[in-house]
Design goal:
The complex is a heterotetramer of chains A (about 180), B (about 90), C (about 290) and D (about 750). Chain A is of the alpha+beta class. Chain A folds into 2 domains: about 80 residues, Ubiquitin-like (UB roll), CATH 3.10.20.30; about 90 residues, DNA polymerase, domain 1, CATH 1.10.150. Chain A is built from 6 helices and 5 strands, in the order E-E-H-E-E-E-H-H-H-H-H. Chain A has a 5-stranded mixed β-sheet with strand order 2-1-5-3-4, sandwiched between helices. By secondary structure, chain B is of the alpha+beta class. Chain B has a single domain, classed as Beta-grasp domain (Ubiquitin-like (UB roll)). Helix content of chain B is about 20%, strand content about 30%. The longest helix of chain B has 11 residues. Chain C has 3 domains: about 45 residues, Uridine Diphospho-n-acetylenolpyruvylglucosamine Reductase, domain 2; about 120 residues, Uridine Diphospho-n-acetylenolpyruvylglucosamine Reductase, domain 3 (2-Layer Sandwich); about 110 residues, CO dehydrogenase flavoprotein, C-terminal domain (Enolase-like, domain 1), CATH 3.30.390. The N and C termini of chain D lie far apart (about 75 Å). The chains are: A alpha+beta (about 180), B alpha+beta (about 90), C alpha+beta (about 290), D alpha+beta (about 750). Chains A and C meet through strand 4 of A and strand 1, helix 2 and helix 6 of C.
Chain lengths: ~180, ~90, ~290, ~750
């Protein structure tokens, strides 16, 4: 048996420990050791983005990160994007705007889009295309993905404005939760 | 009688006849009629009572799904085509 | 992937002694975007992988207009173009950092790693060459420096000796009326390896109409990144016009000695070397004028 | 009961855009794709592949691999039954099982780089990978051939000594790499060319391209100790996967269950089995579930691609723009085994136009590439590139607007195709009219180095068999079981047709794609057939349910069933009415549950035409092509879920743009693929394309109750031709080769 290393990390806000071999990628450990199969393997060499996760807030191809490198890191995967009771606006827009067909690239797009919109909720079409160029989609021709990301950004900005002008748990916020 | 269009690659058996009128209520009967007029054609069309791999039969523009049991109407138009699939 | 041992070093000395002990079966891990692929595909092998991202010196990026830039060898690309001052002072470097892979790759890949991978097509090496960057190496025998232009020796090969580690890259302070640009040609708009890459650095006279000094370097036209010295020296004292750029492009094209492969033909690459030289000169001049 | 209205004028569900039923699972990462499956005791299989493009396999020694700790099973083709000359009808077409088996694991000869030679199962994928390096294979390399015209030469390396050229059932007398010759002829072609005012003849070639689905092939098999084999897989057709696997293993079909997992794209490339029989054999040997996942390079080197081609097209016309004659000579490679996609290529090459006389010759040619597979409108894209390029050149030389030229000659109801059949009502003219009226076509294109291109394309809808069943739940919802694996939202487009039929909402139908034991036989998700044929099955299921529910209402109302009518989700007699949900809640009082079922095998031909317009700009120095604007127009018959129809049009257009510009298999001197990665295969990224505007034309299909025409495939047909025309207008160079990659276009521009 190959030697295993103990790694302590935080995944989607929860402290998580695992044992892994040095040669195992973060993607492999997420999927095989931790049963978090939302991150997909499309190429295993950093050219498709289907395995994108946030590592300390930065989008990375988890196939190109050794799991042992995650010691002490904060990781966000597609499983950690939605709230307990509702989808994230990006996920909601992907559904409403039919921005997925087979859906296997979708987790990667959603995670990268979140990284983008968290930094800039109103990116131009070109900015979205540029920042999402590391994520390949073969089904949609990208059209609806770009539109969904753009619309999600607008919703996020509106929600942020709403949150800053109403107190937490206000009726407006409650209603919005129910509506989605 | 149904009109049967002979594929160009079978016309070596039909002395270049391009289409014929054949009586028959099913494709099997049409095939028998064809074989009677142009010996050897049945072997090209099929084997063991079925339609040969790679050959599709179009009856009135529809691809026959019942093989040799496909019904043929009195005014039907029959073509033999390469079988196709899709992506 | 074959089994290997993983160590995370926290000091340069620790990394050097780990590397020295295993020799050519030890590999340095920075962003991993080349190394992990190579290990997985059996293109390189390793018994030991040494992560150097916990060594502060390798993760530090410090810049001042007086001192210039000290870039830790493991600093990921996104930090380079994400730092306004650095991006303005070394625009050719920022150009390259912004187009290495996609965003996910830029979160991990470092210029130091790009240099040590020593691909002839590496995007960041021509900017290092035209910016006169100096490599600071640490090894069992102590520290030494090597000019970035002399670092690569053959495809995938470089001057690093057994146990030696690239610690940082040092860039001279930005000069007055000077700027740079990097461009590459790829068939798509992202996510490709350069068919040809070109970096230009120019310093103009105060009036901004004449080139005082220039430096041009090319990628993917020779076994190692190539300084186009004829074109560079030709430019000194010439008016900063499109005619001048075109002539420099011709000279750059002449020194290119590319191969034909899946990414382009030799003839096409020679042609592109000229086109990209012209284009990067025009951008660098534009930027130098402010 | 009253007849359900077969053409309701106003639809309630059809034409709306509900959120897809499987959507939440797919945006949260919960959906289970093939690779996401985990079973207790599962081990991992890997395949050893040939490093040579063509070689005799003299021996395989697996003993050292078998001894590696962690290895639980090893297999080669020697473990499989001998299948000489068996032909199996797989619904979508017949297949020679010996060839299929030899593709799955090589028999005596490796026929392409990446051809599977042996397989190992081990406790981890890494151990399995290590074990592969311990298998000793002795090869005797043979000369390889990867270009279709080279493979047709008399002195070409022969791939098989038992393949003879077949011509519609007629077999040649000596072995050849030319596996089939197809010939169609209509009218007196020579005479017709002689009577033409203008004839244009051009030669074209295209490279092999891959379907490029993001999810690699994956299968998990468990050969249980009771002899039952269960396969979880990513497939376009669970029933065809079951049949192929059963045939290759020579076990009864009832002994195999195929459970379709979510599928990450297919485009025609996930119909043939690759891993399923191998995983099954490994599982039989080790008694544990065996999971096998291909790496991306394996996907490129051992699956797909679609053919490279050499084509010659000659077309004549009169001065006033009427087509007189056509002649096409098409050679497509089939890869290592016969049965490429030349048939539909021949049927589609002239299918957009009315030709008084025409002749088509097509050749299915073996060479040392992976066995070619269908790719979205298989064979039609290459043919359209050739035909549409010549059509554009004719229009230009005649001084006629390209849309007007097409309108003068457009195929329409009654047009006799070159291959014989006559078109029913089709919508080609309507797509041309929509193109003419589009904002894109009416907006002038300004600027240097820019050009606009237009081209049209055609694809069939195959019918084939679909089954479905549905249970009415007491709360008024309906659970729909279907067998069509859902690649692009078809659960929803099928469920919507059931909802429309029942008069309930799309959300009130809960569609599930189930395994081969749980629904009637259903053919592949392909041939643009699911929304058409499985949708028809859902409609029939709905009719069956309504008939039964009318009977139940009659029981409740103590009247005759014939007095009960069902309209818009209500059941009524002259004086009583009840909603679908109300009646559903009372089913237990009237005899128990209602289950609707249907199986269909529509033969009615449907045909999809599309016309695309594209603007490009070509960098005069680098020859790089930038797509500025794109509009895709297509006859969808009736768009069930317009967003997913648009999605098909947009996705197909972008695949076509990739085919036009950069995608290709590059081979080295020894016939090995040199660019087997996404990095160097270069599919379009988000940054490489603009928004793809869509115009859906609706000319209802007379053979479907809601007028559906399948839309999946046609959108990939026009783009390469449209792009080539646009590049011509930007540069003055007519490219007759795909891809029009920068080095090739630049070289052409230098001439």
């Amino acid at each position: 048996m190959a030697k295993k290393t103990h790694v302590a990390t935080t995944i989607n806000g929860e402290p998580m420990e695992f044992l892994c071999e040095a040669r195992q990628s973060l993607l492999e450990v997420l999927r095989d050791n931790l049963a978090m199969t939302g991150s997909k393997e499309g190429c295993n060499n950093g050219n498709c983005g289907a395995c994108t996760v946030l590592l300390d807030g930065q989008p990375v191809d988890s196939c190109l990160v050794l799991a042992v490198e995650a010691e002490g890191a904060e990781i966000t995967t597609v499983e950690g994007i939605a709230d307990d009771s509702r989808l994230h606006p990006i996920q909601q827009c992907f559904l409403e705007e039919a921005a997925l067909q087979c859906g296997v690239c979708t987790p990667g797009f959603i995670v990268t889009a979140k990284a983008l919109l968290d930094r800039n909720p109103t990116p131009s079409e070109h900015e979205i295309r540029f920042q999402l160029a590391g994520n390949l989609c073969r089904c949609t021709g990208y059209d609806k993905i770009i539109r969904a990301v753009q619309d999600a950004g607008k919703r996020m900005a509106a929600e942020a404005r709403g949150a800053s002008t109403t107190t937490n748990g206000s009726p407006a916020r409650q209603q919005q939760k129910q509506a989605t | 009688m149904a009109t049967v269009f002979i594929p160009t690659q079978w016309r070596d058996l039909t002395a270049d006849v391009e289409s014929v009128e054949i009586e028959g209520a099913t494709l099997r009967e049409i095939a028998r009629g064809l074989e009677a007029r142009f010996p050897g054609i049945a072997e090209r069309l099929g084997d063991d009572g079925g339609i040969a791999a790679g050959v599709a039969v179009s009856i009135d523009g529809a691809i026959a799904s019942r093989g040799m049991l496909a019904p043929v109407g009195p005014q039907s138009e029959i073509h033999f085509l390469p079988a196709i699939g899709g992506g | 992937m074959k089994e290997f041992e993983f160590q995370s070093a926290t000091t340069v000395d620790e990394a050097v002694s780990l590397l020295a002990a295993k020799g050519d079966q030890a590999r340095v891990l920075t962003g991993g975007t080349d190394l992990i692929v190579q290990l997985r595909e059996g293109l390189r092998s390793a018994d030991l992988v040494v992560d150097v991202k916990k060594i502060p010196e390798l993760m530090t990026m410090s810049f001042s207009p007086e001192q210039g830039l000290r870039l830790g060898a493991a600093v990921p690309c996104h930090r380079i173009y994400g730092d306004k001052d650095v991006a303005v002072a070394y625009p050719g470097l920022a150009d390259a950092a912004r187009i290495i892979g996609g965003w996910q790759i830029q979160s991990r890949a470092s210029v130091g790693g790009n240099l040590c991978n020593s691909s002839p097509a590496a995007d960041s090496i021509p900017p290092l060459v035209v910016h006169d960057a100096v490599c600071h190496l640490a090894g069992p025998g102590g520290r030494r420096t090597v000019k970035a232009s002399e670092f690569c020796t053959a495809p995938g090969k470089n001057v690093l000796q057994r146990g030696e580690l690239l610690v940082s890259l040092e860039f001279p302070p930005p000069a007055e009326h000077a700027s740079s640009a990097y461009m590459r040609f790829i068939p798509r708009n992202e996510m490709d390896i350069a068919v040809v890459g070109a970096a230009s650095w120019v310093q103009l006279t105060a009036a901004g109409d004449t080139i005082e000094k220039a430096s041009i370097a090319l990628a993917a036209v020779a076994p190692t990144p190539l300084a186009a010295t004829e074109a560079s020296s030709f430019l000194a004292g010439k008016p900063a016009t499109s005619e001048t750029f075109a002539k420099a492009g011709e000279l750059a094209s002449q020194v290119a000695r590319p191969i034909s492969d899946k990414r382009g033909t030799s003839e096409y690459r020679k042609h592109l070397a000229g086109v990209l030289t012209q284009r990067t000169l025009a951008i660098a001049v534009e930027r130098a004028r402010g | 009961m009253a007849q359900a209205e077969s053409h309701p004028r106003k639809y309630k569900v059809i034409g709306t855009r509900p959120v897809r039923h499987d959507g939440a699972d797919k945006v949260t990462g919960r959906a289970i794709y093939g690779a996401d499956l985990r079973l207790n005791g599962m081990v991992h299989g890997k395949i050893l592949r040939s490093p040579h493009a063509h070689a005799v396999i003299k021996s395989i020694d697996t003993s050292a691999a078998a001894k590696l700790p962690g290895v639980v099973a090893v297999t080669t083709s020697a473990d499989f039954p001998d299948l000489q000359d068996k032909i199996a009808d797989l619904g979508e077409g017949a297949v020679n099982l010996a060839h299929l088996g030899a593709n799955v694991l090589a028999h005596g000869k490796a026929l392409y780089k990446g051809h599977a030679v042996a397989a190992v199962a081990a406790t981890s994928p890494h151990v399995a990978q290590e074990a592969l390096s311990l298998i000793k294979v002795e090869y005797e390399p043979l000369p390889a051939v990867t270009w279709v015209l080279d493979a047709m030469k008399d002195d070409a390396p022969l791939l098989h000594d038992d393949v003879y050229t077949k011509s519609m059932g007629k077999k040649a007398d000596k072995p050849s790499n030319i596996a089939a010759h197809i010939h169609f002829e209509k009218g007196d072609v020579e005479d017709a060319f002689a009577g033409s005012d203008l004839v244009v003849e051009r030669e074209f070639k295209t490279a092999s391209v891959h379907q490029g689905y993001i999810e690699p092939h994956v299968s998990t098999a468990l050969w249980n100790q009771d002899g039952h084999l269960t396969i979880w897989t990513s497939t376009q057709g669970s029933f065809t996967a079951r049949q192929q696997t059963a045939e290759l293993l020579q076990v009864p079909i009832s002994q195999v269950t195929v459970v379709p997992c979510e599928i990450g794209g297919g485009f025609g490339g996930k119909i043939a089995v690759y891993l399923e029989p191998v995983a099954a054999m490994l599982s039989r040997k080790c008694g544990r579930p065996v999971k096998m996942v291909m790496s991306r390079d394996e996907v490129f080197e051992a699956t797909g691609p679609t053919p490279g081609s050499s084509m010659r097209v000659k077309i004549g016309a009169t001065k006033d723009g009427k087509l007189t004659a056509g002649e096409a000579w098409l050679a497509y490679d089939a890869g290592a085994f016969p049965g490429g996609v030349i048939g539909p290529g021949c049927m589609c090459v002239f299918s957009c136009y009315e030709f008084p006389a025409a002749r088509v010759d097509g050749y299915d040619v073996l060479d040392n590439k992976p066995k070619t597979q269908a790719y979205r409108a298989p064979g039609a894209t290459q043919a359209a590139f050739a035909c549409e390029s010549v059509i554009d050149e004719l229009a230009e030389k005649l001084g006629i607007d390209p849309i007007e030229f097409r309108l003068k000659n457009a195929a329409k109801e009654g047009t006799r195709r070159v291959d014989g059949p006559v078109y029913p009502r089709v919508g080609f003219i309507e797509t041309l009219e929509a193109a003419k009226a589009s904002d894109h076509w009416k907006s002038p294109l300004e600027g240097k180095n820019r050009g606009r291109g237009i081209a049209s394309g055609y694809w069939f809808n195959i019918g084939l068999k679909s089954s479905a069943a549905a249970n009415v739940n007491p709360d008024g919802t309906v659970s729909l079981l279907e067998g069509s694996t859902d690649i692009g939202g078809t659960r929803t487009s099928v469920a919507m047709q059931l909802a429309e039929t029942l008069g309930i909402t799309a959300e009130a139908v809960h569609p599930k794609v189930v395994d081969t034991d749980s629904v009637g036989y259903t053919d592949v998700t392909g041939g643009s057939r699911v929304t058409f044929a499985t949708g028809l099955a859902a409609y029939e299921v709905g009719r069956d349910i309504l008939r039964q529910m009318c009977e139940r209402a009659a029981i409740l109302w103590e009247c005759d069933a014939a007095e009960v009518e069902s309209v818009d989700g209500e059941f009524k007699t002259k004086d009583k009415r009840m909603t679908f949900a109300e009646l559903a809640g009372k089913l237990s009082q009237t005899g128990g549950p209602v289950v609707g079922r249907a199986t269909v095998n529509p033969e009615g031909p449907t045909n999809g035409f599309g016309t695309h317009i594209v603007d490009v700009e070509v960098d005069p120095d680098t020859a790089k092509v930038t797509v500025l604007r794109y509009t895709a127009i297509q006859d969808a018959g009736k768009a069930i879920h317009p967003s997913y129809v648009e999605g098909q049009m947009q996705g197909g257009a972008v695949q076509g743009i990739g085919w036009a510009l950069n995608e290709e298999y590059v081979f080295d001197g020894e016939g090995r693929m040199a660019n087997a990665s996404y990095l160097d295969y270069r599919m379009p990224t988000a940054l490489d394309v603009p928004h793809i505007d869509t115009i859906i034309v609706e000319v209802p299909n007379p053979a479907h109750p809601y007028g559906v025409r399948g839309v999946g495939e046609t959108p990939i047909v026009p783009p390469p031709a449209a792009m080539a025309v646009a590049v011509y207008h930007a540069t003055g160079v007519r490219m007759q080769e795909l891809p029009m990659s920068p080095p090739k276009l630049w070289a052409a521009m230098q001439k």
